[in-house]
Design goal:
alpha/beta, Rossmann fold, Glutamyl-tRNA Synthetase, domain 2, Ribosomal Protein L25, Chain P, 3 domains, 7-stranded mixed beta sheet, elongated
Length: 554
Amino acid sequence: MSEKTLNFIEHIIEEDLSEGLSPSLLRFRFPPEPNGYLHIGHVKAICLNFNLGNDYNAPINLRFDDTNPAKEETQYVKAIKKDIEWLGFQWDKECYASDYFQQLFDWAKDLINRGLAYVDSQSSEQISEQKGTPTQSGTHSPFRNRSIEENLMLFQEMRDGKHQEGAHVLRAKIDMSAPNMLLRDPVMYRILYKTHHRTGDDWCIYPMYDWTHGESDYIEQISHSLCSLEFKPHRELYDWFLDALSPLDTIRPKQREFARLNLSYTVMSKRKLKSLIDQAYVSGWDDPRMPTISALRRRGYTPESLRNFVNTAGVAKRDNIIDVSLLEFCIRDHLNKIAPRVMAVLNPVKLTIRNYPEGQTEMLKAENNPEDENAGHREVPFSGSVFIEREDFKEEANRKFFRLTLGKEVRLKNAYIIKGEEVLKDAEGNITEIICSYDPLSKSGSGAEESQRKVKGTLHWVSIEHAHPIKVNMYDRLFSVEEPNKNKDEDPAQFINPDSFTQVDGYIEPAVANASPAEKFQFQRLGYFILEKKTDEHLVFNKTVGLRDTWKKS
């Protein structure tokens, strides 16, 4: 690998290799907890681990850290696997922490036998009070010096379901005065009568994350355990537990931390995202306003754009907030290359060309994608009555308005130059129809001298006779403030953007009627859209992103 391209994680790996670590012993993993859907922040961790695996020709495990049956479900496991595959990655082994429950239990008993763990019969509130503060040492549990025999008996009884939830926990015996409060006799096991999504009711005690994580890495022989910065204080405990297994006769995992991906106008907490679902602010984990991978997929984002986004954001040592406009730029940049251009009108008003031959339809040639030389052309039907966007017309306008107005000429995209002449209105004064004339010699691409006549405005349109009805879900940013999660104790729901979702009716050119769900398009002059579904009456589209960043910071 080129030295100038290395991030700090790669420097660590290169240093380990230079100090004698065999390349054949490199192994990475992505370890999600199956308690929710993956979001854009997880894309960074996925890409980091899988890219390292690809760059170093090393295997990557997908391991589900499934230690809390109260919050974990099979549906989350399936969604996580689908998301990773959609992003373009494939794992070597599919692993579960629950596969190691017996080994973890046996190791915990070994710690008891060596005086390194004990059963505490206090309540969680009492244990918390005795932890002390960052500036004040904790106090010992009255059960800290139970005999090894009593601890083993109670721990086995916990395993056998002879005690109620909360009656006992197993704690590591470390140091109640440690500056790192995570080392103040952390809980290793708790009693929990919940059915596990894989082990069913085989277990009624479950290992805590900190006890499980490093030991699972060791069992799987992970060489580099990469996690986000909030786990840096946990590294000392991670190493203590590995030390407690000594002597280790195989590779010892190395935990290293990188800055998590924080995105403006976005909440990255699965707990808070689930709260938004529970409170019905969004329709589910895949609501296109959510930052989950499944939601972004449904909204029309591509795997390439997400991978490019996290690669552009980079791997850093310090937390920072990435502007969401970078994410939007990445999807816009990719769709610009691959999305066919079509014409759709989302706020239609009728425009009639009074001098166009009555009943005539002609097929006009339109370019599919000027960014793709292989995209070719399509034919678009044109007639004397078309829909245009209502905001593309004003009866009177200043000199900076380059769209249609009375007495002014504009070009209809791929068609003719027209001139506004009069309007028809309803009883309330609303414009119901715009009457124009056209220049038959101004046909776009005709090669005639007159067709080269320049006008400043070009409008998209759809022939009324041939238009296909559509419904469009217009999505915007879910939150109206840049840091909706700045105060961890606040409910981000208070910052919900009231305009994050609207639905409009419109029309689209007929060629799109044959499209399949999940196909992506650029609606000319409007933005990028994905076909969500087809009904007998409509095509339903989701808006992916606008053609440019129009979000204004207040």
